[in-house]
Amino acid sequence: MKEAMDKRGILIVGTDTLARWSAQLLEGAGELVYGFAPTKEHPQTEQDSLSILPPITRARIWRIIRKAEADFVLALTDPVKRERMALSLFEKTKRVARSVIHSSVYIPSTARIGAGTILFPYVVIGISCEIGGYVVIESHTVVGANTQIEDFVNIGSGCQIGENCFIGSYSWIGRGAVLCEGVRIGRGARVGPGSTVRENVRAGETYGE
C-alpha cells in the first residue's frame, strides 16, 4: 500500500456505476487509480470488491486528500448526494474534485467547464457554452452554442441540446432526449429518455416519462 501511495494517483469517491465508468476513463488515459472510496450510501463492504488496492479507512482517505497525496474524483450518480459530498469534502480538505474529460471530447476555447465535471467519450460542447461544476454528460451528447448548464446536472448519452438552452441545477436529462433551441429546464426537473422538448420545463417537473 505504501509503495503505491508513493506515486500520486486518484481516489474515486463512490462505488456505483458512475464510479466504475470514471475509473475506466482514467485508466484508459494512463492514470493510476488507487481505488474506490466508500460513502454512507456505498459502504466499505462494497468497496472491498471494487478496490484496486486493499481497502483503507475513511479517515485515511480524507487525510490523503487533505494533504494532497492524491487527487480525487467525485462520482456519485445522484446530483443532490454529489453536492452534499462536494461541500463536505471541501469543508474537510479545502480541495475540489478533479474533472474527468475523455480525450475525444470537443471543447472550444470560448467554452467554460466547472470543477469536478465528468465528460464521457465523444461529447461535443458548443462555442460560448457554460458548463457548471460537478456536471455529468454521457457519451455522444452534443451541447449547442451559448447553452448554460448549472452545477450538479446529469445528461444521458446521445442527447441533442439545442443552442441557447438553459438547464438548471439537479436536473436529469434522459438518454437520447432532444432539447430544441432556447428551451429552459428548471431546477430539479427530469426529462424522460427519448423525449423531444419544444417548450420550457418548470422546476421540479417531469417531462416525457
What does the model show?
This protein has 209 residues and is of the alpha/beta class. 22% of the residues lie in helices and 23% in strands. It folds into two domains: 97 residues, Rossmann fold (3-Layer(aba) Sandwich); 97 residues, UDP N-Acetylglucosamine Acyltransferase, domain 1, CATH 2.160.10. It contains five helices and 20 strands. The protein has a seven-stranded parallel beta sheet, covered by helices on one side. Strands 5-8-11-14-17 form a five-stranded parallel beta sheet, with no helix packed on it. The chain has a five-stranded parallel beta sheet with strand order 7-10-13-16-19, with no helix packed on it. β1, α2 and β2 form a beta-alpha-beta unit. It is globular. It starts with a helix and ends with a strand. 40% of the residues are buried. The N terminus is likely disordered.
